[in-house]
Amino acid sequence: MSAETDCVFVEGIEFYAYHGVSAEEQRVGHRFTADASLWLDLRPAALDDDLGKTVDYGLVALTIVDEACRTPYRLIETLAERLAQRLLALGGCTRIRLRVAKVNPPMTTPARLAGVEIERCRPADGADGATGS
């Protein structure tokens, strides 16, 4: 089935936000990056050449930046869950995968990125909201 294999994705969304466990991280902030994949049937959009029948990846990126810069969270897991809920609320997609990472995280061992990757599905009844998968 096409809805399970078709995917709209946006990679390398960048933003500056104030998420972190320490007070210093929440005061100074950090650079973050996000990648999002949204599964839906792309045939209707392709057949009609109609943006209204797909997910606008520009809107996906704006939604991620808006939510990520709105409220600081201690955990990147919380940020990812809030982002997933907002993306599922856009409608149209049946499943999303989201990767959120802090660039050059403050750790004793140097690392380029540290973060989380989550996947959420729209409930079978079609109501908005995320469920674990």
Report on the structure:
By secondary structure, the chain is an alpha+beta fold. The chain has a single domain, classed as GTP cyclohydrolase I, C-terminal domain/NADPH-dependent 7-cyano-7-deazaguanine reductase, N-terminal domain (GTP Cyclohydrolase I, domain 2, 2-Layer Sandwich), CATH 3.30.1130. Helix content is 33%, strand content 31%. The chain has five helices and five strands. It has helices at 2-5, 23-28, 43-48, 57-70, 76-89; strands spanning 7-17, 30-39, 95-103, 113-121, 131-132. Strands 1-2-3-4-5 form a five-stranded antiparallel beta sheet. Helix 4 crosses helix 5 (76-89). The chain is elongated. Residues 128-133 have low confidence and may be disordered.
Topology:
Blueprint: H1 2-5, E1 7-17, H2 23-28, E2 30-39, H3 43-48, H4 57-70, H5 76-89, E3 95-103, E4 113-121, E5 131-132
Helix pairs in contact: 4-5
Give the CATH superfamily.
Answer: GTP cyclohydrolase I, C-terminal domain/NADPH-dependent 7-cyano-7-deazaguanine reductase, N-terminal domain
The CATH topology label is GTP Cyclohydrolase I, domain 2
Distance between the termini: 19 Å
Trace the largest sheet across and list its strands. 1-2-3-4-5
CATH class: Alpha Beta
Number of strands: 5
Work out the helicity level.
25-40%
Q: Structural class given helices, strands, pairing?
A: alpha+beta
Mean pLDDT: 90
Spans with pLDDT under 50 lasting ≥5 residues?
128-133
Largest sheet: 5 strands, antiparallel
Order of helices and strands: HEHEHHHEEE
For the record, the count of structural domains works out to 1
In the CATH hierarchy, what is the architecture at level 2? 2-Layer Sandwich
Overall geometry:
elongated
Radius of gyration: 16 Å
Q: In DSSP terms, counting alpha (H) and pi (I) runs of 4 or more, how many helices? A: 5
